[in-house]
Amino acid sequence: MSGRARVRARGMARSPGALAGECTQASPSVPRMLMPSDLSDSEASFSGGMEGTSRISQNCDKSVSSGDVGSTFVEKVVKVRRDYVDLGVCTRAKLAHVRDSKTGSSGIPVKLATNLFNLDLPQDWQLYQYHVTYIPDLASRRLRIALLYNHSRLSDHAKAFDGTILFLSQKLEEKVTELSTETQRGETVKMTVTLTRELPSSSPMCIQVFNIIFKKILKKLSMYQIGRNFYKPSEPVEIPQHKLSLWPGFAVSVSHFERKLLFVADVSYKVLRNETVLEFMTDLCYKIGTSCFIQTCEQQLIGLIVLTRYNNKTYRIDDIDWSVKPTCTFQRRDGSEITYVDYYKQQYNITLSDLNQPVLVSLLKSRRNDNTEPKIVHLMPELCFLTGLAGQVTSDFQLMKAVAEEIRLSPLGRQQRLARLVDDIQRNKDARFELETWGLHFGSQMSLTGRVVPSEKILMQDHVCQPMSAADWSKDIRTCKILSVQSLNKWLIVCSNRAENVIDGFLSCLRRVGSSMGFNVGYPKIIKVQENVAAFLRAIQQHVDLDVQLVMCILPSNQNYYDCIKKYLSSDCPVPSQCVLSRTLNKQGMMMSIATKIALQMSCKLGGELWAVEIPLKSLMVAGIDVCKDKFSKQMVVVGFVASLNPRITRWFSRCILQRTTTDIADCLKVFMTGALKEWYKHNHDFPARIIVYRDGVGDGQLKAVIEYEVPQLLSSVAESGSKISSRLSVIVVRKKCLPRFFTEMDRTVQNAPLGTVVDSEATRPEWYDFYLISQAAYRGTVRPTHYNVIYDDNGLKPDHMQRLTFKLCHLYYNWQGLISIPAPCQYAHKLTYLVAQSIHKEPNLELASYLYYL
Amino acid sequence: MTFKRVTESNMDDVGCFSSEMGRTRGFCLVAPDFLIQSLRDISEFFVSRRLGDKMEEKNMQVADLGCGDTELLRLLKIYPCIQLLVGVDIDEEKLQSNGHHLSPFLGEFVKPRDLDLTVTLYHGSVVERDSRLLGFDLITCIELIEHLDSDHLARFPEVVFGYLSPAMIVISTPNSEFNPLFPIVTLRDADHKFEWNRMEFQTWALQVANRYNYSVEFTGVGKPPAGAEHVGFCTQIGVFWRNSGGAPGPCVSQQHDQHVYKAVYTVSYPSLQQERVLKFELVSEVLLQVERLRLWHLRTLREQKRGAGTVPKEPSVAPSLMLDLFTEAEKARIENSPKPFCEGSRFFVPLQRLLAYPRLHRLPVDEERMRSLLADSVCLSSDGSAVKVDLRNTWDWEPDDY
User: Which of A217, A357, A730, A764 could form a disulfide with A793 if both were Cys (CB 3.0 to 4.6 A apart)?
Assistant: First the structure.
């Protein structure tokens, strides 16, 4: 079932009335935007609103839930937003060897500036959580809030209240406080305020309250919340040539770092495409004609985030309903029927100009209860603006360049932006007042000491190379031979008649660079075909037999060729394949470097080993796990697993599976790990003594699930492997997207921290065994450190060794002659899942498992 | 009367506010739909009545005295003709916490208004004179007067009618005859100093209108339930117009600035009247139109090649949607403007042609202004009369590939 059909089906499941039913259930985006409970927007909402800002729904306002006046209050439990859930997962306590210290020692200390700010609290500061009940019970959240806020007893308290749960920074005298108040009609209402918890400033709930406070403050600075970040649309950077505006803003977060509460802020931009969805559709229709319009339109639009014209909400396009028109009616909350046209006219004074447009369908995740069906919202394409860069636009090189030039900020520029934000907060009267009433004091920017770990030598076949720069050692090893690779004797080139003339030049180039790196490239069989996908596939089917080592395809410019060929050769008929765009081979001046890159990739695909680094641990297996959503069916998750096969860590085993699930938690790891151990045994006639698994692709709030579901799978496969001494396992969660940034200050200017910088204090978390590592270079812009969180560790390696091993592994990605931002096994796993999610859409053939065919 | 027609159709279940009565404005909190609808009716009414067919009238100034939670202002801000919107209330905290609700929507930064709009909230009392509220087109006092004590009530007409003297005033207040329908018979709000029956209100209103040379008409919102029609509307409304022969506003001696109100919140909306915004909008629209024409041109070329000269009349889009729907006049305007043309691999669209398309036609620019605004972001032909682009882009989608 296609994603679209599924949305339909879901709509129907709730109302047997099928299409008509769906139509009446869907409301045009939120007819309640002016509901009074919106007014309490400045108030905290602890359960609903916070979740609404999650990555999936991105609806930053909570007015949707406001309409249901009702029964949910009683059983409401305080839910912690997912970002903060992970902070409650204390893994370090279980790891005896790092309980006292998790810092390393090797390397040269370096003083680092950060984007972290001190947030000081009085020593004995606590947050007091109260439960409030009303007699008689009041249904209106707004009324509840108003009555409590207006009560003189609480007037000089700093407070956050969502209608049921009240937070105060000062304790009330009594555990149970009875307050009496009168409604304006003269009815007496009794409010019982009962203390339920006292929370230290480090508790996740406290952190959440702090974040609510900062959300309020940023709104005072005329910023708008979109998703999780805050933007200032009144100061846009405009790129009219590309119909784009960029809204500058910040990603901010308050949380408890290693020793204290810190405020962390990073510059962020929101990309707005000054184009309505309707305009986009029209242009698309002009471009591609009508034959495959609907299909292409859905392919390009579904999944994008749109901003509506008449409120501050963003929605994800989950489907397009071509059967509903603006002249159709829907049911309002009061039960009356109204057409979309009339609704927008009445509600917003907006006249819809195109009465034939379809409607966009968005599913709103319920915030109160995860089990309820999502609510369907219909949106008018004419009133929706596209946000973000996705789909077709990303292939517009000029556009991407223009955006990158605006967005990419030097470390200095970034620090200046932050300084301005802090200045704005401190100058704003309301913001200052807000902080003061809660007892918060906004302090100075924090600096800390990191270490630059020693650089690594690159081991070639008969040469040990100390690169000039670890970012790129391609020049250093140009004359060196790669570790090992078999000769390429029997292979095919499939190309179109048009590409014929470039083949000879390219082939001689390839043979030349091949021989200099120790890779023997024989003459291929060249097959010329018509320029269409079917002809390419037919040629491959005809000519590939068991002896063929590799198939190279010189492709005209279309993704379609790539997908079909990869699908066939990775799964139906497992042979390593190398696709090259004919356009690439036309770049005359660069032929040598192109040929080198292709030769390296080809040798990897044949099972070659390019280079190595010194690995002091004997009998160590490293593995990487990543997940990726399938391009076509968003309910499918591709899980990739790549593990090393030899102690030198130069050969890799891979497995990949498509898993139907809504979370990104893998449930096939046991099979993977068992397979990897068997393969290791085959190569080494023993089991590895140590296994270190790097897990990438863990979203916010999933840490607990990884610990509870994934680690046991790995452990049980290790236990059942049949080895006499069970291998010791460590699991490390890798995160590329973390907020902290580290800079070095020199001569009153700010620069990126050097390659190999490790930070394992101050900016880390007390409850975790974690560290940051900078293993990638940013020539322009600001480098982003990678965060490593060791969640399970039987190996008991010293933190120093763990850090250095991780750094070593960042050198081993064969597709790039230099350091990369994450350990090689993770990058391989990413490459693999990406190939499967984008092109193959099914499990690759196991015969290829010990080759890097996915590079 | 427009107003009645609108209001009578809704608010037919009084039951919905029998359980709890509201706080702030007597309308009631727990029937927010009713509240909103009432306010919406008032704004709708104002627009239709005041402007009539003069909907195009620009630069309207509107103030809401006792604006409270700013609901009415939020409803009024959607009207394009209003350029100054002011709220006044004595509850400063309320103004502060509600200010940001009046800030522009994110979408209004993407597609800006045609005309400027400034929204300001003042902390102050309705019986104080502030010259910044002089010369307004409309002043609304929704559920306000019943909160005034007798002293303030006496001074109220003098300030609002006599001093501020707007072209139109809307005053609403509870109708006490309706009260027996509520389960608890009392004043609707503890802060109400009085609640008038229809006679009392109308007497007061007529007296005030006569004194300050206004005409008044009465209406209301909140239809009584069946069987109780005699009690009249839940809320009674007086609509006052300044008589044309009447006082032409305050005399000069009073004109000097009296700023007694304290501005609590103020926000300016992006609009096409601002050069930067106009430029961006113009460039985007020009590029959009040029791109469409270019694609259309390419299509025509392709189909000529393929179909041996059968040129399609108009792009025939299967889902019959998404085409600029032009009126006859617009079509004629476009037809009469110079056509796009090709020179070698370049594609040209004359500025005059572009200006003929409705979406550019609406922008306040002529060809000269357009040229200067486009100059540094769009490539123009050598004589500056047309936009120049490459006919083909590298990323063009070639359907033949498929």
Answer: A730
